[in-house]
């Protein structure tokens, strides 16, 4: 069942024109809208379901810099800074706090990785450090059953509340003039002289010279409708929420097997870290050679299967004309089922490590769908073959934390301003210019 995300109203009237139309009301779409509005541009967000109904409400809420691939540190550190000022900027609560994040290590051989990571990350002045076994015990005294040998603790890393954050940012954007249209799928683009001239939605056409696809897991399908290749594959993930429990941490802990973070209501959001199911679908078959390296790297945590996603949903095969009902309006919200097996296993490990959690019950659970690229790095980029079309998708399980900076970068590119960070790692052309795909951007 979908998690109970804050619902916001829609703007009734679709504008006849807008400087920018954003397709998708997840964290990336709403952050981009906020930044574009700050630049004085008129913006309309069109969302096929409701704001944050898909990945942006289903995630763990971690806004983390430590452990990110080094080329992504400019984006991650900028995002953490923007998260810090977000509530003030929008006059609303996203639940963001610098609660501190801990990654625990089970094997001393992992320490060499972290020594090297901290060395390379030195220019970014990280405040995290490696904790000894004794320091870990002092930080998490309730973890009496854990077999951790060390940990990496980063006090400045934080979390926001996925049920609140994107809707709050969307409302902040609306305060600056952005219009928000829910139950309003974008079916496709119109072009004039080879450039984007309009976005066709199920409720009418909006004339524009700039359209951003921030469609999360559906982005590849939207791109394909216009002959643009975007290699994207999805992993079905499971997360759950417990009832209120004893305070074992105020922040987040990633054990490698399970990951948890304390919520404002005193319960925990938990997941079986990195585990999930990859479905064989028309899209996954199309891009399989590109994802081989990534899936081989993560094969111990993934299962592979075939199901209804072959025929319906973001990776299915579909063709349509802009005058016809599109696959986007046939599935307003992609709401995959959670895996009971993963929940039971995750709770078993959790109760073993924290005996004080033995009576804490699971209150709610949900499935999610993580969209990845072959190098686990998003695309935030103009599309060279279709001037006026931009893409911000493929966040590979890291997009909630990166959202504010990704939105800022996308807005800078659309407005032709000096980009807040170097956009080169995020260019779409890397999939066609022979760039070697290294799947190491997602380290944990
Ligand atoms: C279980 C789980 C745990 C995660 N944990 C974390 C974490 O702790 N930290 C972190 O940083 N990231 C995490 N992530 C990843 C993060 O949630 C995503 O990277 C991020 O939310 C992606 O945002 P988005 O806006 O690109 O996509 P989404 O939130 O999926 O938004 C895309 C929106 O576009 C809409 N849409 C698609 N096509 C159309 C169309 N044609 N017309 C109109 N609307 C359309 C969809 O309905 C959807 O609402 C996790 C993800 C999952 C599933």
List its salient traits.
eight-stranded mixed beta sheet, 444 residues, 27% helix, six-stranded mixed beta sheet, 11 helices, binds flavin-adenine dinucleotide, alpha/beta
Q: How does this model look, in words?
A:
The chain has 444 residues and is of the alpha/beta class. The chain has 11 helices and 21 strands. Strands 5-6-4-14-15-16-13-19 form an 8-stranded mixed sheet, sandwiched between helices. It has a 6-stranded mixed sheet with strand order 8-2-1-12-21-20, with helices on both faces. It has a 3-stranded antiparallel sheet with strand order 9-10-11, with no helix packed on it. Strand 20 (379-382) and strand 21 form a beta hairpin. Helix 1 (27-38) runs parallel beside helix 6 (165-175). The model has no long low-confidence stretch (mean pLDDT 95). Bound molecules: flavin-adenine dinucleotide. Flavin-adenine dinucleotide (FAD) is lined by residues 23-29, 46-49, 53-56, 58-62, 185-186, 214-218, 222, 237, 239, 271, 328, 368, 370, 393, 395, 397-401.
């Amino acid at each position: 069942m979908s998690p109970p995300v804050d619902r916001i109203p829609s703007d009734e009237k679709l504008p006849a024109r807008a400087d920018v139309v954003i397709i998708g009301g997840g964290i990336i779409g709403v952050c981009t809208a906020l930044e574009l509005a700050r630049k004085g541009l008129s913006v309309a967000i069109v969302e096929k379901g409701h704001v944050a109904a898909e990945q942006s409400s289903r995630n763990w809420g971690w806004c983390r810099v430590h452990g990110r691939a080094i080329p992504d540190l400019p984006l991650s550190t900028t995002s953490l800074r923007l998260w810090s000022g977000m509530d003030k900027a929008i006059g609303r609560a996203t639940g963001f706090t610098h609660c501190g994040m801990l990654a625990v290590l089970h094997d001393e051989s992992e320490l060499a990785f972290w020594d090297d990571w901290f060395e390379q990350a030195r220019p970014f002045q990280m405040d995290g450090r490696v904790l000894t076994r004794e320091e870990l015990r002092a930080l998490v005294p309730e973890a009496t059953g854990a077999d951790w040998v060390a940990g990496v603790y980063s006090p400045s890393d934080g979390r926001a509340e996925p049920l609140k954050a994107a809707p709050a940012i969307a409302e902040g954007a609306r305060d600056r003039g952005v219009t928000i249209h829910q139950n309003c799928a974008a079916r496709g683009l119109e072009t004039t002289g080879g450039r984007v001239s309009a976005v066709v939605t199920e409720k009418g056409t909006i004339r524009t010279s700039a359209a951003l696809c921030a469609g999360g897991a559906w982005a590849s399908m939207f791109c394909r409708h216009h002959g643009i290749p975007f290699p994207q594959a999805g992993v079905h993930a499971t997360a759950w929420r417990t009832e209120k429990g004893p305070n074992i941490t105020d922040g987040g802990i990633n054990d490698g097997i399970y990951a948890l973070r304390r919520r404002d209501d005193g319960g925990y959001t938990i997941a079986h870290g990195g585990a999930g199911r990859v479905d064989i679908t028309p899209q996954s078959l199309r891009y399989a050679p590109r994802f081989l390296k990534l899936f081989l790297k993560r094969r111990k945590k993934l299962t592979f299967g075939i199901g209804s996603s072959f025929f319906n949903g973001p990776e299915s095969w579909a063709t349509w004309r802009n005058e016809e009902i599109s696959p986007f309006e046939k599935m307003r919200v992609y709401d995959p089922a959670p895996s009971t097996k993963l929940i039971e296993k995750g709770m078993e490990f959790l109760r073993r490590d924290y005996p004080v959690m033995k009576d804490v019950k699971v209150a709610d659970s949900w499935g999610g769908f993580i969209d990845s690229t072959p190098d686990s790095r998003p695309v935030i980029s103009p599309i060279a073959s279709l001037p006026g079309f931009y893409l911000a998708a493929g966040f590979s399980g890291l997009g909630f934390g990166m959202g504010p900076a990704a939105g800022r970068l996308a807005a800078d590119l659309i407005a032709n301003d000096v980009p807040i960070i170097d956009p080169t790692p995020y260019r779409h052309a890397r999939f066609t210019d022979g760039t070697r795909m290294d799947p190491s951007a997602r380290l944990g």
